[in-house]
Design goal:
The structure is a homodimer. With about 400 residues, chain A is of the alpha/beta class. Chain A has two domains: about 270 residues, 3-Layer(aba) Sandwich (Rossmann fold), CATH 3.40.50.1820; about 100 residues, Rna Polymerase Sigma Factor, Chain: A, CATH 1.10.1740. Chain A has eleven helices and twelve strands. In chain A, the strands form three sheets. In chain A, strands 1-4-8-5-9-10-11-12 form an eight-stranded mixed β-sheet, sandwiched between helices. In chain A, strands 2-3 form a two-stranded antiparallel sheet. Chain A has a two-stranded parallel sheet with strand order 6-7. In chain A, about 55% of the residues are buried. Chains A and B meet through helix 4, helix 5, helix 6, helix 7 and helix 8 of A and helix 4, helix 5, helix 6, helix 7 and helix 8 of B. Chains A, B: This is Homoserine O-acetyltransferase.
């Protein structure tokens, strides 16, 4: 007997009919996945900001991080919070929507409208769940290329992203070098380290240990492994912040009291903060999607597709690269960015490298870090001049 | 209706009747706990190695780490594995059982025979569970002092321990300076940082998220939150190893296959290793004990009891200190040891400080790291000469 809930879960509704632009690809346009499967039909949910110019030369693709989405610069339809990169994207901002046509799509395997495990499998009428083939970073990028084709854009002015988004940037530059004028991989790595895999595995095990995960088929039963997913998010969240930032922000401060309770309540502010991060995450993210996107990162090793040589991935590239790291980022440390830069140098590619001095850790790429924002503005302005993209009207130029 | 299993769970049996020496303190000798409660009766399980000399001048107390126990240098009664510090403790080893009388006791709140949450609460006949008052590092040390009294020892030649054991060493030196001839805090900190608390909180939430935790009363039902505890252990285990050690040992190596499975199986060796660590841990450790010992560390802030001045904790101390850190330890980094050294210097205490160069991370204190072993041997030999402890017979002197 199968459980047949009368109503779809929130995550399945968003997955199928998102608050976004959507392009649907029919059976004649499958996504050829690294798992060896043709995914068909499938859909991509995306947002755009600004206007594509007549020359179609001003398009920027933004690639989101692990649990990000396409809602870069608009109020998020589920959380009601601002977009995740409003500090960087908008009129007059470094990624200037008065000048550029900005595209952001939800990744394959996500849960905000692009086909993912919470989407309805047309063959069964139920959620794909873990029957969806595993997704790779290259699959995500292949799907994005189909979206860019659909939008009639030949060459992207820029592909930009941090963390898992930066992996997509690197994959774009390797897979479609002629379609990427500039590439900005931020706070990322060309392959997942053993420690990176380890933290992701803890998160996955936490989700799968929750009995409400139900072998992955929780949406059929109208439930969700929220406790396991919240713990996964708590563990991951620690890796997004530097030890210094935690100490400065929380230290050993108690939560609204003068003395510890001698109980397992959240005595310390840091405990309260983590619990909040865990609990709020489960309201906006699908647990199976979390398994898929973490796995995609773990499988990422760009050099592997090029005989073990990362330089070979970029051989002959005309793309202008700007590699950015943050010195307090211990998840994707500067050494990982340096490895990318060394490969780009070996490939004789054009590359700028900036290590930003900040104590805010990995999440610095999402925050108002003035040196980072100025770096992005300067790099893009120089590249726009080289590409001949006019300044917005009324701003000289 | 209460569930009444016919047989006690393994952890409760070991907690009540351990494979160890045991000293029981009756109602007339309560443990005065920081929680404001007199714990009575209670018991301490311990092991000894070597012989106490006539002058009672050669006793060394070893303090174990978070999930360690008293089985330092004998086969572990549950796992069948060697003791956790056989590399350091034994005949002819740096902590030479031919020369010293070595004592190791299980901490209060533990699960190997000293009173902890798995022990039977005499008032109810059931496991204490989370009705046991919260335990602090100072409580652990108070109990150890009662054991040392019971053994008729006035002054310990040395108190030695790593990680949470190092916290106990610091507490011993502060609480009972006249009873500690030498103190060796290893890979530890005088207070838990925000990041330290954060990782422990993830572990606790993982245990408590497991429905088999049953509000803490799982032993009554003859079950155990093994899945949540395993995930907690996996997360903690990452913090015990350095990024470099993980990369060297596992890197991105696949587990017994040539290509990834495109599934959520353990593709990578690091995943398999972590799952093994998690699964084997639950066979030897009680989940509630894990909550208690992590909480004890989080509450630890030695300076707090001395008006916020760590130096004040050691004022007038005649103890000889040897502080040891490992340069790749990111859980209790060298900076935390330096803070201890600075305080000891400010208190005009006798202190040696050694930072060991190794890529093995926090767990280096448990491993065969030659420089560390030589350091321990040298420091103890010099101190033994100062204390007038003779060399073992047949070894000159």
């Amino acid at each position: 007997m199968t459980i047949a809930p009368t109503q779809k879960a929130l995550s399945q509704l968003e997955a199928d009919a998102p608050h976004s632009l959507v392009v649907r690809f029919g059976a004649e346009q499958p996504l050829k996945m690294d798992a060896g499967v043709d995914l068909k039909p499938f859909q991509i949910a995306y947002q755009t900001y600004g206007t594509l110019n007549a020359a179609k030369s001003n398009a920027i693709l933004l690639c989101h991080a692990l649990t990000g989405d396409q809602h870069v610069a608009n109020v998020h339809p589920i959380t009601g919070k601002p977009g995740w990169w409003e500090v960087m994207v908008g009129p007059g901002k470094p990624i200037d929507t008065d000048r550029y046509f900005v595209i952001a799509s939800n990744v394959v395997g996500g849960c905000m409208g692009t086909t993912g495990p919470a989407s309805t499998n047309p063959a069964t009428g139920r959620a794909w769940s873990i029957d969806l083939p595993l997704v790779t970073i290259r699959d995500m990028v292949r799907a994005q290329a189909m979206l860019i084709d659909h939008l009639g854009i030949e060459t992207l002015f820029a592909v930009i992203g941090g963390s898992m988004g930066g992996m997509q940037v690197l994959q774009w530059a390797a897979s479609y070098p002629e379609r990427v004028f500039t590439a900005m991989p931020i706070a990322t790595a060309a392959k997942h380290s053993s420690q990176n895999i380890a933290f992701h595995e803890v998160g996955r095990q936490s989700v799968m240990a929750d009995p409400e995960w139900r072998g992955g088929r929780y949406l059929d039963a109208g439930v969700s492994p929220t406790k396991g997913l919240a713990v996964a998010r708590m563990a991951a969240h620690i890796t997004y912040l530097s030890e210094e930032a935690l100490q400065r922000k929380f230290g050993r401060k108690l939560q609204g009291r003068d003395a510890p309770t001698f109980s397992f309540d959240a005595d310390f502010q840091i405990e309260n903060y983590l619990r909040y991060q865990g609990n709020s995450f489960v309201d906006r993210f699908d647990a199976n999607s979390y398994l898929y996107v973490t796995r995609a990162c773990d499988y990422f090793d760009l050099a592997e597709d090029y005989g073990g040589s990362l330089a070979a991935a970029f051989k002959g590239s005309k793309t202008r690269f700007c590699v950015v790291s943050f010195d307090s980022d211990w998840l994707y440390p500067t050494s990982a960015s340096r490895a990318i830069v060394h490969a780009l140098n070996a490939a004789a590619a054009s590359v700028s490298f900036v290590e930003i001095d900040t104590d805010r850790g990995h999440d610095a790429f999402l925050l108002n870090v003035p040196e980072f924002i100025a770096t992005t503005r300067g790099f893009l302005e120089a590249a726009a001049r080289a590409r001949g993209i006019p300044m917005p009207s009324g701003k000289g130029g």
